[in-house]
């Protein structure tokens, strides 16, 4: 295939500093392995901290674990906003880097962080006064709702710190530096794991705060992350241009991808809120089991999340440089990997599910619900990889509507109706089965769609290049 490069601006080249990588050169698989390994390191630490927190809370009591489960959809919504902004900004930055516009990349980095803070503060103000209503809607009883509200009120204070770190991680990967965010994520998570038990159980003379202690651990650890990310981005790497000139134009570019990405990422937690309400109808033990199983599954899924996050800056830079063979090879290798990982991960979970769950919580009802989940839903893990890779690729290309469509199809059109049907026929087990069936269907659709869209997009770009038109 023709891989003619578009002329790149001489404005600083493709590197902002010596430690960054130019993804338009070198073997594709080596870049992907390096990017993914660093991303796995970061995600292992973050999700590991979440799982350890769950283990701590399970020691406090089943009702506390259930309360933590009710906070999960709300926390996911906030994280979806942060991730959407990070996806939008990194998409613009990576393509700017690929075409040699390093000063534009710095401007986008600066403006994206300002935009992120504005949106997150507004969202916190909206949610803070309505947490009790939200948890009651989700089906939490009075005791669980009281615990969940107390946890979330503290957790929200640390959200701007967490969001800054999440968006900052996307931006650093976009310029070709996957190592720094991985190390910073690990440090922040270690801080959380160390601080949380002191406040949860009242160790070292600290007050015994229970579930609220976990929230304080999150807040203090993420404050540390904010300070580290701020130093790296603004001082060490000098990735910010302290000027608001062109801010509106930057916001428009970021939100072109970011808003649909926010909507796409928010559909899942909003739908999960309704799913949580369905599951809550089967009792506190079942919702606790679901909460525990979901966190265990996320630990295994982290490799697929890492891979999908890794291919985005790689595809963005190579698309900006018109290296289309490398774009296609990236997607092919990524999809091949998710199939292998899906088989290996499911085998591990099917065999070890009950043992893993019992090592964390011995309540028979919790063990039964969590074990069933882990033996059913991860069956479709490889197909989830297809979905993640496709949406990441679309966003990297600056095409945000297909991922939004995929999310609507997955969570609203297919999963919710199937979950309600499954709940009616088989109880909570039917809800879990519906999740696996949905992922199978949408995974197949996603793989076919991105392959055809990529072929069409390349043909259109080559035609424009042949006509002497540069983007």
TrEMBL record:
NCBIfam families named in the record: matE
Residue spans crossing the bilayer: 35-57, 77-96, 108-129, 149-171, 183-204, 216-235, 274-294, 300-324, 336-353, 373-397, 404-425, 431-450
Protein source organism: marine gamma proteobacterium HTCC2143
GO CC aspect terms: plasma membrane
GO molecular function: antiporter activity; xenobiotic transmembrane transporter activity
Record's keyword terms, sorted: Cell membrane, Membrane, Transmembrane, Transmembrane helix, Transport
Signal peptide: none
Name listed for the protein in its UniProt record: MATE efflux family protein
Subcellular location: Cell inner membrane
Chain intervals for the UniProt region annotation (Disordered): 1-21
Coiled-coil zones: none
Membrane topology: Multi-pass membrane protein
């Amino acid at each position: 295939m023709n891989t003619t490069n578009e002329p790149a601006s001489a404005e600083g080249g493709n590197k902002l500093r010596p430690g960054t990588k130019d993804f338009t050169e070198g073997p594709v698989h080596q870049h992907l392995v390096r990017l993914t390994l660093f991303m796995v390191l970061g995600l292992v630490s973050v999700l590991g901290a979440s799982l350890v927190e769950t283990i701590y809370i399970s020691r406090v009591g089943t009702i506390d674990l259930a309360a933590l489960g009710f906070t999960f959809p709300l926390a996911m919504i906030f994280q979806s906003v942060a991730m959407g902004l990070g996806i939008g900004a990194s998409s613009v930055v990576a393509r700017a880097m690929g075409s040699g516009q390093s000063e534009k990349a710095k401007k986008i980095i600066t403006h994206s962080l300002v935009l992120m803070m504005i949106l997150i503060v507004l969202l916190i103000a909206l949610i803070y006064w309505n947490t009790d209503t939200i948890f009651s809607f989700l089906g939490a009883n009075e005791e669980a709702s009281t615990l969940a509200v107390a946890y979330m009120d503290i957790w929200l204070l640390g959200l701007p710190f967490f969001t800054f770190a999440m968006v900052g991680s996307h931006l650093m990967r976009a310029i070709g530096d996957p190592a720094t965010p991985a190390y910073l994520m690990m440090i922040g998570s270690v801080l959380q794991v160390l601080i949380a038990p002191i406040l949860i159980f009242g160790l070292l003379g600290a007050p015994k705060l229970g579930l609220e202690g976990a929230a304080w651990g999150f807040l203090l650890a993420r404050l540390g992350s904010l300070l580290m990310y701020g130093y790296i981005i603004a001082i060490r790497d000098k990735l910010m241009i302290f000027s608001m000139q062109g801010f509106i134009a930057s916001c428009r570019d970021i939100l072109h991808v970011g808003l649909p990405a926010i909507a796409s990422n928010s559909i899942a937690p909003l739908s999960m809120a309704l799913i949580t309400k369905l599951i809550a109808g089967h009792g506190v033990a079942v919702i606790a089991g679901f909460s525990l199983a979901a966190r265990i599954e996320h630990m295994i899924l982290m490799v697929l999340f890492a891979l999908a996050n890794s291919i985005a800056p790689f595809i963005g830079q190579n698309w900006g440089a018109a290296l289309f063979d490398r774009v296609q090879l990236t997607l092919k290798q990524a999809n091949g990997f998710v199939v292998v990982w899906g088989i290996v991960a499911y085998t591990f979970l099917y065999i070890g599910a009950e043992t893993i769950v019992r090592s964390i919580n011995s309540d028979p009802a919790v063990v039964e619900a969590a074990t069933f989940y882990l033996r059913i839903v991860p069956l479709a893990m490889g197909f989830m990889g297809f979905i993640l890779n496709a949406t990441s690729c679309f966003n990297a290309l600056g095409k945000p509507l297909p991922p939004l469509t995929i999310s609507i199809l997955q969570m609203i059109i297919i999963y919710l109706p199937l979950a309600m049907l499954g709940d009616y026929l088989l109880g909570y087990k039917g809800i879990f089965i519906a999740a696996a069936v949905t992922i199978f269907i949408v995974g197949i659709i996603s793989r076919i769609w991105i392959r055809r869209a990529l072929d069409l997009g390349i043909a259109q770009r080559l035609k424009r290049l042949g006509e002497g038109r540069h983007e």
